[in-house]
Amino acid sequence: MNTENPIKPSDSLRHVRYEIRGRLARRAHELQRLGYEIISLNIGNPGAFGFRTPETMRLAMIENMPASEGYCHQKGIFPAREAIAMQQQERGVQGVTAEEVFIGNGVSELIDLCLRALLNDGDEVLVPSPDYPLWTAAVTLNRGKAVHYPCRPENGFVPDPQEVERLVTPRTRAIVVINPNNPTGAVYPRHVLEGLARIAERRGLVVFSDEIYDQIVYDGAQFVPMATLVRDTLCATMSGLSKVYRACGYRVGWVAFSGKVRAASDYLAGLELLSSLRLCSNVPAQWAVQTALGGYQSIRDLTAPGGRLYESRQAIINAVQSSRFLRLTPPAGAMYAFIGVDTTELPDFDDHQFALDLLEQKHVLVAPGVSFNVPYRTHFRVTNLPDSAMLRDVFGRIEELLAAYASAPRAVSGKVVEAAQRFK
């Protein structure tokens, strides 16, 4: 009898999670193939909800297509890198030129490359909790240890620098700052960012500042670029076209280095080596960068009162305010809401079970809070990309499910306990 040994995955994947596109999302796909219409609020994908990339960016790609058929420099094409450097300079960041800019296939690739060039076995990286889970996964995959610093719900999901500093050890190499924050929508005040910058400088930590939502702010919230505050250590500012310019599929992200760049020459040489090994990032879409950064910033229309992102965000806030069960710190930025459930009303609430029930019974897909590396099971994330009418419908379904929990929690939860076990 022919028996085959199973092919097992690498042990390095044992502690890697990315539930935003994980088992719940796969179950949603199964239901769609069975004919169910699923409202997917688990991912911030503007194109899925009718948002278009600005026409000028598409034209820039088309006009430069003949120049896009070969490899480009491993750091990216010069016009794009120069435009990124100029944006940093206009924001008050000192000393950035095109030489300090690397372009990648989205910020996701650059997170991996930057950590791979930095970390040795057991090195620690301070990562916010809740976080965008790619950061924790990338630290783990690159032989490091993610040490989560709390951004507590009772503090509006803003970190306390003193609490952060207590987590620094001799093995700590870097700190990650996500501002505006995904998943919470928090926009960090200047004094908090200054506190984190001073910690990094005192302890010699690299600052990785994930600013992909830098222009998506609401109600007068002020975004402060981290690189304007970091002077005496290395700061890596990460952003891209995906969110502000509604161009996720273009896969164009960048990292601009500032601060003590000269002292980091060996590290940057290592990063360039890794960039060379993958030859270069997607060339056609890089031609859209200069046009994007130098052109009309249409995102401001979307985030102002009357704009679609603003009104969708307001629909979420209104729905939570009228809910018997839900609680929310209104997001000041980004395109998400990290919603809590009142455990005095629902003491047995479990975010993963709720997400599965909501999918199976109400055909709405959300991301459970545990996906974002938090120690509690009381939150879930939705995106505000759908229009207001769709969000009102979604929150009507959520309220129905939570009301059913409250009236007969064991009976309702028990309907899919067996199914839930298959996804854990």
SSE blueprint:
Elements: H1 23-33, E1 39-40, H2 55-63, H3 78-90, E2 101-104, H4 106-118, E3 124-129, H5 133-141, E4 145-150, H6 161-165, E5 172-178, H7 190-203, E6 206-210, E7 234-240, E8 253-259, H8 265-277, H9 283-294, H10 299-303, H11 308-321, E9 326-327, E10 336-341, H12 351-362, E11 364-365, E12 367-368, E13 379-383, H13 388-407, H14 409-414, H15 417-423
Parallel strand pairs: 1-11, 3-4, 3-5, 5-6, 6-7
Antiparallel strand pairs: 2-8, 7-8, 9-10, 10-13, 12-13
Helix pairs in contact: 1-12, 2-9, 3-9, 4-5, 4-8, 11-13
Structural account:
This protein is of the alpha/beta class and 424 residues long. The protein folds into two domains: 12-41 and 305-423, Aspartate Aminotransferase, domain 1 (Alpha-Beta Complex); 55-294, Aspartate Aminotransferase, domain 2 (3-Layer(aba) Sandwich), CATH 3.40.640.10. Helix content is 38%, strand content 14%. The protein has 15 helices and 13 strands. Helix 7 links the parallel strand 5 and strand 6 (206-210). The protein is globular, with a radius of gyration of 22 Å. The relative contact order is 0.16.
Please outline what is shown here.
This protein is α/β, with parallel strands linked by helices and 424 residues long. It has helices spanning 23-33, 55-63, 78-90, 106-118, 133-141, 161-165, 190-203, 265-277, 283-294, 299-303, 308-321, 351-362, 388-407, 409-414, 417-423, and strands spanning 39-40, 101-104, 124-129, 145-150, 172-178, 206-210, 234-240, 253-259, 326-327, 336-341, 364-365, 367-368, 379-383.
